[in-house]
Design goal:
single chain; 178 residues; mainly beta; Jelly Rolls; 2 domains; 6-stranded antiparallel beta sheet; 5-stranded antiparallel beta sheet; 15 strands
Length: 178
């Protein structure tokens, strides 16, 4: 789908509640393709986390000077306010990033990059996405997540036992808290 400001495209992974539009979602996860320099879409009242997945990265610069960040290390999440006027400048060609947005008045998110086995705490809503290698996710059911595969849940209060199935494995794990 096109970005809110029309400057690029994104692939929506999940948007809650189901059927919510760009102006009324509680939380949203997507993967964006940044192919050129330009402004980020503004999302007043939202908290955002961006994580470089692949490519040369991008320099994020806020009009007010509060944001000045080089997003050039894959799998290193960076948080900022959705209302911030941010301009992005590509560092070395196009890139793909994982985007998480939560409506500040409704919920918050905990996002971590996992590289080893763990017990992921229960949460009523959340998402797991294998970025590198494969993962075994044991919860109400058992899933094998291959690279670029994931699962999300809502209204389930689900804990997970997460196990990498290869030495280079990396998983994005997030819980949403009301």
């Amino acid at each position: 789908m096109p970005w809110k400001n029309g400057g690029g495209v994104t692939r929506e992974i999940v948007c809650m509640p189901p059927g919510a539009g760009m102006g009324d979602f509680d939380w949203r996860v997507s993967i964006a393709h940044i192919a050129g320099d330009g402004p980020f879409s503004a999302f007043p009242g939202m908290d955002r986390v961006i994580t470089l997945l692949s490519g040369g990265g991008v320099h994020l610069l806020g009009d007010d000077g509060l944001v000045n960040h080089r997003l050039d290390t894959p799998l290193s999440p960076f948080a900022f306010a959705g209302e911030a006027a941010i301009h992005a400048r590509l560092l070395a060609g196009d890139c793909h990033d994982f985007n998480l947005m939560t409506r500040r008045a409704v919920c918050s998110a905990s996002l971590q990059v996992l590289r080893s086995a763990c017990e992921w705490p229960a949460s009523a809503q959340g998402l797991l996405m294998a970025v590198q290698g494969s993962w075994r996710a044991e919860g109400p059911s058992t899933h094998t997540l291959l690279p670029q595969q994931g699962l999300w849940w809502s209204e389930a209060d689900t804990p997970w036992r997460l196990s990498p199935q290869s030495p280079d494995a990396a998983l994005l794990a997030l819980n949403i808290t009301p």
